[in-house]
Each structure stands twice: as structure tokens, then as C-alpha cells.
Write a structure and sequence with these properties.
The protein has about 170 residues and is of the alpha/beta class. It is built from eight helices and five strands. The protein has a five-stranded parallel β-sheet. The longest helix has 19 residues. About 30% of the residues are buried. The protein binds shikimate-3-phosphate. Shikimate-3-phosphate binds next to loops.
Length: about 170
């Protein structure tokens, strides 16, 4: 079983992915963690020291490496992964992979991201007032990529188990 979760920062990809993998008895991976371990550096340090363009290049390479090596998994992508370097086409061309978009509203994303901004280089320096506007514009740019996923689940105001149960229904 090969499942990919995608969506904006703060949509719950990692939290939902971990719980889903337990229920399905398949290993969980997070592409950001995979990149960090392969590069021996945190995402923040990669952005700081090598820049976003470098990050997008290696994100693409490690996504392809991951997909060609792993047999059974739930994989959570980074928020930007589907939107760069033809990554969404790569994912969709793997016909045995099921992709699912975790769809969250702007207020939900704002609330979740503002609790944990520092680890996210794209938003770390934004004020609370600027954050909502940034998310709204950014999500508008990215949504067309996310919406290419085979399935999508609305996550607003739902607990983890509810979202996991909804994804499992979609997988049948
Ligand atoms: C990014 C999201 C992050 C991480 C990097 C860039 C983005 O992942 O890949 O900071 O472009 O949205 P999360 O969505 O897990 O925060």
C-alpha cells in the first residue's frame, strides 16, 4: 500500500500520516525528515545556508529516490512539494500510489501555523497580521496543484481519528 498525503503547511500531514500508518500497519515517512536525514541538516538550516532553490532541487531528487525505493508506506510531503519541479506529475505517474489532499481553511491554517512558525522558514519572519494574507495568497497559488490529488478530505474542526477514518473510507 502506497499513500501520499499532501496539503498546505499546518494541514496536519504528519499527525494524520502517523495515525493512518498505524491503522494500516504500514511504515510512516515524512519527506522533510527524509531530506533532513539524507542531508544531515534541518530544513531551516538548508534554507538558511543553501537557499530555497537548492531545497526545491533536492526535494525533487529525494522524492523520486523515495518513490523508487520504498514498497509500502504512508508518506507526508512538505507543503510545497506538489507545486515544484513537476513533482505532482511524478506522483500521479506512479499509478500504484494513492494521493490525498488534506484541505484546511485559511483560519485553521493561520491558527495552526502561528503556534509553530519558527521551524517553517517561509513564514518564520512574518507578523501575525501578515500571516493571514500570506497564507491566503500562497494557498491560492498552490491549490491547483493540491487539487490534482486523487482524493481530498476537509480537516477543519475534525479530530485526528475522524480524518483518518474518512481517508480509510476513500481508500476502499
Ligand atoms: C514548505 C513546507 C514545509 C517544508 C519547507 C517548505 C512549503 O513542510 O517542506 O519549510 O513550501 O510549504 P510542512 O508543510 O511539513 O511544514
Amino acid at each position: 500500500m502506497k499513500i501520499i498525503l499532501l496539503g498546505y503547511m499546518g494541514s496536519g500531514k504528519t499527525t494524520i500520516g502517523k495515525q493512518l500508518s498505524k491503522k494500516l500497519f504500514v511504515p510512516f515517512f515524512d519527506l522533510d525528515h527524509y531530506i533532513e536525514s539524507r542531508e544531515g541538516a534541518s530544513i531551516s538550516d538548508i534554507f538558511k545556508e543553501k537557499g530555497e532553490i537548492y531545497f526545491r532541487k533536492i526535494e525533487h531528487l529525494y522524492l523520486k529516490e523515495f518513490l523508487s525505493e520504498k514498497d509500502s508506506y504512508v508518506l507526508s510531503l512538505g507543503g510545497g512539494t506538489p507545486c515544484y519541479a513537476g513533482n505532482m506529475d511524478v506522483i500521479l505517474s506512479n499509478t500504484n500510489v494513492t494521493s490525498c489532499y488534506l484541505q484546511a481553511s485559511i483560519p485553521t491554517l493561520k491558527e495552526r501555523i502561528s503556534k509553530n512558525k519558527t521551524k517553517r522558514p517561509l513564514v518564520a519572519s512574518l507578523s501575525e497580521e501578515k500571516l493571514t494574507e500570506f497564507i491566503a495568497k500562497h494557498l491560492f497559488e498552490r491549490r491547483s496543484y493540491y487539487e490534482q490529488a486523487q482524493h481530498s478530505v476537509i480537516v477543519d474542526k475534525k479530530d485526528i481519528d475522524t480524518v483518518v477514518a474518512e481517508i480509510r473510507i476513500l481508500l476502499h
